[in-house]
Each structure stands twice: as C-alpha cells, then as structure tokens.
Design goal:
This protein has helices spanning 21-35, 45-48, 69-78, 97-107, 113-117, 140-146, 148-163, 183-209; strands at 5-6, 8-13, 39-44, 83-89, 129-135, 168-174, 213-214. By secondary structure, it is α/β, with parallel strands linked by helices. Strands 3-2-4-5-6 form a five-stranded parallel sheet, sandwiched between helices. It has a two-stranded parallel ribbon with strand order 1-7. Strand 2, helix 1 (21-35) and strand 3 (39-44) form a beta-alpha-beta unit.
Length: 230
C-alpha cells in the first residue's frame, strides 16, 4: 500500500444528463456514506467539463511529459481515497469515452504501462477499493449472451484492480433502465445502492481497525471543487 488511506469515498459519475438514473445512484451512495459518518466526494465529469482527450505530452515516460494542474488536482483527490466508485451507463458494451479518458489522463498520469507490466505497487491507488455501479437499457441476460458483461468485468474492473494494486473490486449492475422505469423498481434499485454503500462503509471500518485507513474527521472536511474547467 502506498500509504494510509482516509475514510473517503471518491465517487466518479459519468452521465451527460444531470437528472439521470446514474446521477440518482451517485447521490444516494454519497448520502448513505455521509450518514454513516464517512466522507464522500462527488466528481461529476460532465458537470466538470472534464476533457477526456489524452495529449501526447501527458503520457508518462514521454520526453516532453507535462502533468496539467487539472489532472494533478484530481490525483490529489483520489490519492487518499479508501474507495473509488465509478458510476456510469454501459454504452455499446463499454464505459462512456469520458470515463475511459479519466482513467487514461488521471489514473495513468503518473503510472506508465511499464509500471503496470512490472507489477509496481507504488501506484497512488494501491490499497484502494474499487466499486462500479453501472446501468444498461438491456437485461443482464442479454449482456451475458453478447459476451459484453464478462469482457467489461475482465478488461475494466479486474484489469484496473491488478494494474494499480487496488485492494478489491466489486460490480453492482442495474439492468433494463428505461425512461419510464416504475417507482417500484427505482425504489428497489436505490435499496441496492444503500446496501452497497453500507457494505463499503463496513469495509472501511474494518480497514480503520486494521490500521490501513484513518478515521474521518468531519471537522477537517471541506468541499472539493474542480480547480477550473477542464
């Protein structure tokens, strides 16, 4: 582990609509975490106008490598997170391009493919838990039949866990999310988010007891905002 983590959950939301199902998932997760006495920091990529395009000089190892202030700001936010939570819709079998850009530009900013290949455990995310909360308009069965589900879990969840020496990964998926989703199913899904958040908080408390995390002090909390638009 790169250092002791704080009892902080960084929730990275990636959906263009501010009133989307995914936005409701992110809001619910953050609310439950805060009610549990832990810290939740929301990074809404579309509201932040995050630029997902990786420039040539942003690649680690490049002779002209330059880390932008925006990326450095994001790295500071996630560096001491006990949980990194991705909230996004599955589009064409993969995460939205903006989230992949966040991985490329932020997570990979100071950690090259060479470091991944040699299993370097000095990543800033070493020891962080990864949780994905995703949605799709199709059924889980359909994703399985297309091979999309297993591919996504393999190349995104488990790859990131191993590449950055993360402590664990878990994926909670909500299928058949449509515009006219009934209140009953919406409430059921929000209950699943609540349970996932409680589970995450329980893991953090266990890590605190083991000395792998420091307890969250609300008196030291502050609202984290983007340094400026990307």
């Amino acid at each position: 582990m790169s250092g002791t983590k704080k009892s902080k959950h960084v929730v990275v939301l990636c959906h263009p609509e501010p009133d989307s199902f995914n936005a409701a998932v992110a809001a619910k997760y953050c609310a439950v975490v805060r009610e549990s006495g832990q810290q939740a920091v929301l990074r809404d990529l579309y509201r932040m106008k995050f630029d997902p395009i990786l420039q040539g000089n942003e690649r680690p190892g490049s002779a002209t490598f330059h880390q932008s202030p925006h990326v450095a700001h994001e790295l500071d936010i996630i560096a001491d997170a006990a949980f990194l939570v991705f909230v996004y819709p599955i589009w064409f079998g993969t995460p939205p391009a903006m989230l992949k850009g966040y991985v490329d530009r932020v997570l990979g900013s100071d950690f090259s493919f060479r470091a991944v290949k040699r299993r370097d455990n000095k990543s800033r995310l070493a020891g962080t838990h990864l949780l994905s909360l995703t949605s799709s308009g199709t059924s889980q069965m359909w994703l399985d039949e297309q091979g999309a589900w297993q591919s996504l879990v393999t190349v995104f969840d488990h790859y990131l866990e191993r590449a950055f020496s993360m402590a664990s990964t878990e994926h909670v998926h909500f299928s058949s999310i449509v515009d006219d989703l009934s209140e009953r199913f919406f409430g059921q899904y929000m209950q699943e988010v609540l349970e996932a958040a409680h589970k995450s908080c329980s893991i953090v408390r266990e890590d605190v007891s083991a000395g792998e995390c420091t307890a969250y002090d609300p008196a030291l909390d502050r609202q984290v905002e983007p340094s400026e638009d990307f």
